[in-house]
Amino acid sequence: MFAMTESVSADLYDVLFPATGSPFPARLLERTRFDRWAGFPSGRAALAYALRDAGLGPDDEVLTPSYSDLSVDRVVESVATPIHVDVGTGYTMDLDRAEERITDRTRAIVPTHLFGEPCDMERVAELAAEHDLAVIEDAAHALGAMHVNGAIGEYSDYCLFSFRFTKEATIYKGGLLLGADPARMAPPQSDLRTVAALCGVAVGETAMRSLPGPVYSALRSTVLDPYFRTSAGFLDDVTPRRFTDRQHAMLAAQFRELSSAVETRRRHAERYRRGLVDAIERPPAAEDHAYFRYPIQVPRSRREPMANALQRRGIGCSKSYSYVLGPPGECPNAYRASGRVINLPIHARLDAEQVERVIGTVNEVWAGFD
Ligand SMILES: Cc1ncc(COP(=O)(O)O)c(C=O)c1O
């Protein structure tokens, strides 16, 4: 047993969220039904732990998103057999497709609230109950949405958060796993690849994607995959650990601002929704979202020049994600998004004027292509 044997009421409050005067820790605790938690060096380590803890092995199938961070896929792959499910009209798993992919080997589902867009967890819970699946909720992008919207992990067996530097609350790198069933808690096995190796895969993959398709495929199967599969020596990184005092303080300070940050980002998203020209595809306008990377879609041929033009004009944007995790033919929506997404800045520290500037610039750049 690891740190997950500690009780939430004592430890989450006192250790992870020391006296801050903020309503956030108390409200977090009120909303969680979990009685186990653990800190990790990263969200991916937390995911690896959860998969192991749920008793999954290589023959077990895990329904996992076809559109998400590469690290998620690599972790699932290192423990079990990922079954990639397409996204629906937005950026979360299409749960009808998920149901179609269930076989008698399916043991778990990893719903992800991508970019802060909530996945329909009630439906996930129905599927899980019907088919006896463990639910490992990837809330790496959704701390704010879950905090503001309601119950945390209400429908899952495990719920993980990431505190990486790209996330809503950060301690540079870190992860948190909440879990509900003490009977399932067990030490992680020793054949997981390292977090460092997983990062290496991501960097290598990104670099190699600029190569022509056949060269990329050959290099990936002969060099990258075998290398990272066998470099599984260092396991310290996937074990639970306590956060330092400084990390507690950093998290507490960021959590204090979380509610207002989500409100501000929702206002920014609403401005984008109304202000961008109609031809630019916006994400579904779910009221309970907390987009923290605002994903628009433009035609494939325009994405690269448009992102470059925006960057030249001082608009920091990214193209997350430009890959599909499953076979593209089986995941048409993910494939479509992977060639079309541009993430606009939506940080809570942007003021209204800056958001208007982003809108004006995006519309102008778009018009320049017509
Ligand atoms: C959706 C999602 N889940 C999980 C992770 C893993 O979190 P971490 O980067 O903290 O390992 C990431 C990556 O950043 C992510 O984007």
Describe this structure in words.
By secondary structure, the chain is of the alpha/beta class. The protein has 3 domains: 3-186 and 242-250, Type I PLP-dependent aspartate aminotransferase-like (Major domain) (Aspartate Aminotransferase, domain 2); 193-234; 259-369, Aspartate Aminotransferase, domain 1 (Alpha-Beta Complex). The protein has 14 helices and 9 strands. The protein has helices at residues 8-16, 23-31, 43-53, 70-79, 95-100, 121-131, 143-149, 195-208, 213-230, 245-256, 258-275, 300-312, 332-338, 352-369, and strands at 36-40, 61-65, 81-85, 106-109, 134-138, 158-162, 175-179, 294-297, 341-344. A 7-stranded mixed β-sheet has the order 1-7-6-5-4-2-3, with helices on both faces. Strands 8-9 form a two-stranded antiparallel sheet. Strand 4, helix 6 and strand 5 form a beta-alpha-beta unit. Helix 4 packs across helix 8. The longest helix is centred in the middle third of the chain and has 18 residues, at 213-230. The radius of gyration is 20 Å and the shape is globular. The model is unreliable at 1-27, 182-196 and 228-236 (pLDDT under 50). It binds pyridoxal-5'-phosphate. Pyridoxal-5'-phosphate is lined by residues 42-44, 68-69, 71-72, 112, 138, 140-141, 162, 164, 175.
